[in-house]
Amino acid sequence: MLRLPKFEVKNPSTVEEAITMMSEIDGEARFLAGGTDLNPNMKHRLFTPERVVALGGIEELFGITQLEDGSLRIGAMTTLSEVSSHMELGAAYPALSQAASLVSGPQLRNMGTLGGNVMLETRCQWYNQTYFWRSALGFCMKKDGTKCHVIEGGSKCVAAASNDTAPALMTLGAELEFANASGRKRMPIADLWQADGIWNKKVPHTELLVAIHLPKPSADQRGAYGKLRDRGSIDFPLFGIAVRLDCDANGVIEDAALCAVALQARPWPLKKAPALLVGTKPGEDSFAAAVEAVAALAAKQCRPMPNIPGDHDYRHAMVPVYTKRALLAAANGDGPVHHV
After folding, report:
1. Which domains does the chain possess?
2. pLDDT tens for residues 90-112?
3. Residue 110 CB contacts under 8 Å (≥ 6 apart), including other chains
């Protein structure tokens, strides 16, 4: 049986109290949201914090609110279940709703939070193991060792970003609101990531994600999320792809965005894809040709590594398949693309 290490629990009632509780300890401290990622990592001794700051008592961190300018504010502690079932959010931002609905299984979505999924630790089949398993292997550079078992001689950790909601939020141009000892700041989610699997974010873990802000959607904004995984639920993505299509009054695409996940340490935007889609109209030959071109581009740009479970050659073969399916689902207003 895997047991949690000993730690102190603090229960702040405000964001400011939470920041203070994180900073006043000399040893390591961690924020606890839903606990669906932190708790197993602590059992595996990937983290052994002396203090855990539980966020469940901070009212400001909960809820979905539409603001006067038409944008949406989602508190970081809002559960994935609420995000996936919120009717207005699902209608305006379908890719995000679909991505949230495909995270793990229903019990964990009831506990897991949107903020926790955004701040999810990178994952690797050589890292997310018990202490005994890792010690027998000689550890890795992400924890306790110096060697990368994915890329022989590699100098940088390539543990993969595996958060389903991150690529959807990237396509939507979301902004993240953080709190720290100096106050508050907002940053585009595109600026959050760095290519380092040990810590793939440009903010320290002592900063608290308070809310996710989504801009007002266009009049005809469509989207979808495709997720490759072994089983119909529970599993982390072997590959994920989020799509956003903005159409004009005639149904012609005037803007688009695609972003992949579960490849490397950060979500991967397909920056050349929008130019292939803009000016085409779903249902017409031009759009069908563009979909094929984007799928081929995704296969070229998205190269899975053996950093997470699953054959990386198979994962690569599925990149154009899921990219094409997600594009068609977005254009037709269909549900999420996943294995059932």
Report:
1. 1-57 (3.30.43.10), 59-119+160-214 (3.30.465.10), 221-334 (3.30.390.50)
2. 999 999 999 999 999 999 999 99
3. 79, 81
